[in-house]
Amino acid sequence: MWLALVAIPLSVALGGAVGQAGGSFVPWSTWISSCAIAAVVALTAVVLGYAPGQCLGTCTKAGDSLWVLVMVSVVLPPYLLYYAWMVCLSPATSLGRAVAGVPQAALIAGRVAATGVLVMWTWPLAALVQAAGWRRMDRSTWEAALLDGGRRHRAWYVTWPLLCGPMVLAFGLCFVLVLSEVSTFDLGGMRTIGTELATLYQLTGSEAAVANAAWPLVAVAAAVAFGLARQLRPGPPHAADGLLPSIHGWTGARRITIALLILSLGVPVGLLVTAATDGQAVSQFLRLHGDDLAASLVIAVVSTFMACGIAAGALAVRRCGRVGQGLSLLMQVTIWISLLVPGSLVAVSILRLLAVCHVPDVIRSSWLVVSFGQAGRLAGVALILLLLARGRGRLQVLSEMAAVDGAPPAAAWWHVHLPLSWRMVVGAALVVMMLSMTELAATMVLLPPGVPNFAQRLLNQMHYARDPQTMASCLVLVASFAVLAAVVVGLIRTVRSFHACVAAVVLCGMVVFAGCGRRSDGDDRPAVEACFGSTGKGQGQFMYPRAIEMATDRTLFVIDKAGRVQHFTAQGQFLNEFQMPQIELGKPTGLTLSPDGDLYIADTHYSRVTVYSQTGRLKRQFGRFGREDGCFIYPTDVAFSGDGRVFVSEYGGNDRVSVFDGQGRFQYSFGSPGHDKGQFSRPAALCADPERDLLYVADACNHRIAVYTYNGRLVKTIGSLGVGRGQLRYPYGLTRLANGNLVVCEYGNNRLQVFTPQGDSVAVYGRAGRGPGELAYPWAVAADPSGLAYVVDSGNNRIQIWQL
Questions:
Q1: Alpha-carbon distance 307 to 376, whole Å?
Q2: Is 70 left (phi over 0), alpha (psi -120 to 50) or beta?
Q3: pLDDT tens column, 441-481
């Protein structure tokens, strides 16, 4: 497993970087700014973690609760903490409205919040490393230093020199992890090394290009890995004498630890609790995310077994003489490098390895590849936990005694190693399992379309601003991790039978596997006429396309996350393009052609609608940030009635449809945030039916299509939450066919569904995948009079043409 998931993928990635001449690179300005941010975060984390490290390193069983809380702070993903803190800056709050009204202030607030959250996430890690340094101090030497010169003398000549190594190691570990972080900086709108490398992979799909650009980060990760191997080597037998005694300032250190835990864990959870006022969101959680949780738990269980197996093997080979010790050192260093380098680098190397070895597609397109990638990364966490948690010298002494007594290896393992180590193994496994449930760096690269994943869905939800479903998801995740932490404590204090623990784990695994595997495949296979587009920023390439519109001459306009509007023929031939001038705060999501041929773009994160000619000339814009009439928070789409009215949908706190005249003057609005009739939760798309004077609204987070008259009277709703025929999950796109039927693009179910004007489901097309007729997170759809549907296959960066 070590060779397949760690050593060979690293060799493939680094070998590709060496073999690629020139290659891509990250601008030095980004390197400098990223290193400055990482250094500030890491230094602050080390300073804040000193007192908690002292407290954790010298406390007895009375401090178990502090250990649990610190571990929970580490395993909670930083993007969840960022989202929790940003609740108070949501456009639905007065503070959020004041900040969001000034785009530059909103950008600064997001960056400051991202940096602060990473400090709150890394100080517990720095504290754990420093706690290991406190626990490795020789008690007799430490006490003798007090007699020789007092507390200051001991601190200057004993404590600080002995803690220098752990503090430097904690700094390096936090520094590298912050450099590799992607999700938090992405949510905060910051360009860093991690985000640039992730973007580079999206553009090239090449592990060689990413490794070539990331070699400085790999070099730093290697240095930190060697430091870990040196710092966490087995302690001397005298360490078994026990912990250092409670020292002066322990009460102060405990108070500081509790205060930091309240700030980094208690306040974010409190913000989520106070913001989660919608009970219906909690009640719908299992219906919406049941398959996500089941699949993620299966992946986590498998990856945890593999990760702990790799870590335990790296420690076990130490007993095989000098050769075994050298091999163990090599395994440990490579395992930690795999943990510290960007997850996308390791993940894409695993994909390349699977392709080279001709592994069957049934495995390469299954959830197993996600477990492979997570195991390769998280083995480093399991290794650190096993090294930190094991008895300092006691296991070594008892093993030597068993060998002197002539005990065979099997008997020594059963009677010595197993009784002393099973608790720490179970604890390490649970921690790795929690990290696996929320791991994104490798998961986003390896996750096949259609395989449910809770972390991926949660990150996607976080882009919906203050959505009740996101609050419910975050709270369920926090509660689940708290329960798992309590289980760890309960195992250590009450469970005495290793075999009972194993039986419980196996039983839970069987239950999880039995509940996994639900897919939402289409019932009908579409006739695929053609496909165009690929990944990149060149002509005819896309960076996650999100909107499409067909002109009267049957040419197509497509907008992607790079803020580009590209113009194509109906056959997919590139004609021209133009670039949106401002995309720093976010990218547009809606694109519609008016009856006179102008392009109306819902400039979502700039709270406005911009009007362009088809050649890219800006003609006018209307709307601004606010909750008043005629203002927007996050506009999503535009539709036209045919009699001069312009409909604009929006979310983020207004969640309504506003109506304007052709010059952008406000007329009236309808809808409000919520889940009841006449309310919206992220209306994502609009489609007008001039024959019946009806407006169809894709009410995405309510998982339904709402049908209104042009005057704003609710006629009916179509669909409900689910994966069956007639049910919807995150409908993002709408269009009408010539016969009046409505085509709905379902992001959450990876399919198209066709409804009659009366609301009856008549066809379901497509399923999750990479091949023709398969989709990966589709965002939008357009149709021509002949029945051809142009599907925005966002996750595959292409447009598919289907005959419906």
A1: 7
A2: alpha
A3: 888 888 888 788 888 888 887 876 666 778 888 888 888 88
What region, left, alpha or beta, does residue 703 occupy, with left being phi > 0 and alpha being psi -120 to 50 degrees? left
Yes or no: domain 283-518 corresponds to CATH 3.30.2350.20:
no
d(CA 402, CA 398): 6
DSSP conformational letter for 732:
E
The CATH class, in words, for 579-775 is mainly beta
pLDDT tier at 516 (50, 70, 90 boundaries)? very low
Please tell me the distance from the alpha carbon of residue 101 to that of residue 111, in angstroms, as a whole number: 16
Distance separating alpha carbons of residues 478 and 458, to the nearest angstrom: 13
From the options 3.40.630.10, 3.90.1300.10, 1.10.3720.10, 3.40.50.1100, give the CATH code of 25-233: 1.10.3720.10
Q: Which long-range contacts (CB under 8 A, 24 or more apart) does 709-712 make?
A: 710/641, 710/643, 710/645, 710/659, 712/657, 712/659, 712/668, 712/669, 712/670, 712/671
Instruction: Using alpha carbons, list the distances in angstroms from residue 108 to 105, 263, 409, 458, 583.
Output: 5, 21, 60, 24, 15
CA angle 427, 432, 433 (to 5 degrees): 95
Q: How much helix, strand and coil, in percent to the nearest 5, is found in the chain?
A: 55, 20, 25
Give how far the C-alpha of residue 425 lies from the chain's centroid of Cα atoms, to the nearest Å. Answer: 26
CB 765 within 8 A of CB 751: yes
* 348 alpha carbon, distance to own chain's centre: 17
pLDDT tens per residue, range 277-336: 666 666 777 777 778 888 888 999 999 999 999 998 888 888 787 888 889 889 999 998
Decide: 278 and 675 in contact? Cβ < 8 Å: yes
Q: Which long-range contacts (CB under 8 A, 24 or more apart) does 330-334 make?
A: 331/2, 331/6, 331/7, 332/225, 332/228, 332/229, 332/383, 333/222, 333/225, 333/226, 333/229, 334/2, 334/6, 334/7, 334/10, 334/225
704-758: per-residue pLDDT in tens? Answer: 999 999 999 999 999 998 888 999 999 999 999 989 999 999 998 999 999 999 9
For residue 661, give Cα distances in angstroms to 614, 684, 776.
Answer: 21, 21, 37
Report the alpha-carbon angle 540-542-544, nearest 5. Answer: 160
